[in-house]
Amino acid sequence: MKLSWEPYTLDLRVTWRIAHGSSDQRHNVFAQIGQGEEAGFGEAAGVPHHHETQEGILAYLESVADRVWDPFQIEDQLNSLPPGSAAARCAIDLALHDALGKRLGQPVYRLFGLNPERAPQTSYTISIAEPAVMAERARAADMPILKIKLGATDDEAILTAIRQVHSGRLRVDANAGWDREQAAAIIPRLAEFGLEFIEQPLPVGDIEGLRWLRAKKLGVPIFADENILTSRDVAAHAGAVDGVVIKIAKTGGLREALRGIHTARALDMQIMIGSMVETSLAVTAAAHLSPLCDYADLDGPLMIRNDPFEGMRYDRARLVLPDRPGLGILRKQVPN
Ligand code: MG
Predict the structure, then answer these.
(1) Quick one: what percent of the chain has pLDDT higher than 70?
(2) What is the CA(297)–ligand 1 centre distance, in A?
(3) Residue 173 CA to ligand 1 centre (angstroms)
(4) DSSP letters for 94-113
(5) DSSP 8-state symbol, 153
(6) 171, CA 20 to 30 Å: which among 17, 123, 148, 257?
(7) How far apart are CA 64 and CA 88, in angstroms?
(8) Quick one: CA torsion of 266, 295, 71, 34, rounded to 10 degrees?
(9) Confidence of residue 19 (pLDDT cuts 50, 70, 90)
(10) SS3 label, residue 269
(11) How close is the Cα of 224 to the center of ligand 1, in Å?
């Protein structure tokens, strides 16, 4: 089976602003392995702060285009890929799993032996804006679990505004926005708002800082996100954090995500499965692994205007996995 691809620009519903930048569009790539009924599909997310560009993804796919792909040899085929764009390798991994499920007539969650009823509810993300605007978006979303982006402006003012409209579960993500002293000072104050956990309080790579922060027992569990790419990174955080955020765009697909999940379990860490700004294709793929995780942050498709796929559905925050073979995604005739 041959590999082909298609660049695709995602238009965001609202400007996506987090601690290290903002955007109105994202530039992803869809990959396809094979043709016709049994073709498998994958997605590579262009993520500026992970140095994943559409050009880099396309160059990687081009570099392996002359290979012959076989979904019955997934492990060997993925292990033989050259290093480079994790997003591009993710697209290939997803396309192979999609094709395998279609050949076997089974959804991907069943290939992994998972019960789709165990998928955790997803959080809904509010990116950074004026506190009143964030609160209005939170109110309009009417979702049971919110994830609030922090680390760029007045974090306490934001959470004060959010708590006026949302009494449910709340988690926050600083996206590496604080240094050690700032984090140690602000986390006890943020704890007053009743937080499930805080993602990536410190700059990327500061594992000892996370260990130092966690030892202070500041009243909010600490998760690493940007620090964690592969299962090796999970192992390197043993004892330094309460949990890790696994994303298929960082691991290079479902196989390495699964290894990261098992590594975290073995080290007594909690796990959230997350997504980048991705369509229903990649987010449905991640959702197939979500029954293994404690938390889900799989709201990517809710953030974009022109999702060309349908797959997993949302029953408010509940993830309803498709039971079609493979990833179970379908291309829409007209993107909405
Ligand atoms: Mg995060």
Answers:
(1) 99
(2) 9
(3) 5
(4) HHHHHHHHHHHT-BHHHHTT
(5) S
(6) 257
(7) 10
(8) -160
(9) confident
(10) coil
(11) 8
> How far, in Å, is the centroid of ligand 1 from the Cα of 102?
32
Residue 175 CA, ligand 1 centroid: distance in Å: 6
State which fold the 3-105 domain adopts: Enolase-like; domain 1 (3.30.390)
273-289 average pLDDT score? 97
CATH fold for domain 111-331: TIM Barrel (3.20.20)
For all residues of the chain together, what is the average pLDDT? 96
Q: The tokens 């909010």 sit on which residue?
A: 220
Question: Would you list the domain boundaries of the chain?
Answer: 3-105, 111-331
Distance of CA 38 from the midpoint of ligand 1 (Å): 34
Average pLDDT over residues 21-30: 92
Question: Can you read off the two tokens belonging to residue 175?
Answer: 């996206």
Which amino acid, 70? D
**CA 251 – ligand 1 centroid, Å:** 14
Q: What is the pLDDT of residue 52?
A: 94
- Asked if residues 328 and 33 have their Cβ atoms less than 8 Å apart, the reply is no
Distance in Å, CA 40 to ligand 1 centroid: 28
Q: How far apart are CA 47 and CA 55, in angstroms?
A: 12
Torsion, Cα 327 328 333 335, to 10 degrees, reads -60
Q: Would strands 270-274 and 295-297 be described as parallel, antiparallel, or unpaired? A: parallel
Q: Is the pTM of this model over 0.70?
A: yes
Model pLDDT for residues 236-269, shown as the tens digit of each residue: 999 999 999 999 999 999 999 999 999 999 999 9
